[in-house]
Amino acid sequence: MNTAPANLMTTKSWLLLLLLAGIWGGSFLFGRIAVQEISPLLLTLFRVLIAALCLWVFILVTRRKITITKWLVINIAGMAILNNVIPFTFILQGQKEIGSGLASIVNAMTPIWTVIIANFLTSDEKMTTRKILGIVAGFLGVAVLMGGDLLQGLSASAFAQASVLVATISYGFAGVFGKRFKGHDPLLIAAGQLTASTIFMAIIVFVSRSTDGFSTPSEIVIWSVLGLAIPCTAFAYVLFFKILQSAGATNVSLVTFLVPVSAIILGIIFLNESLTPWHMAGMILIALGLVILDGRLFKRRSA
Question: Which of 33, 59, 23, 20 is CA-nearest to residue 270?
Answer without folding.
Answer: 33
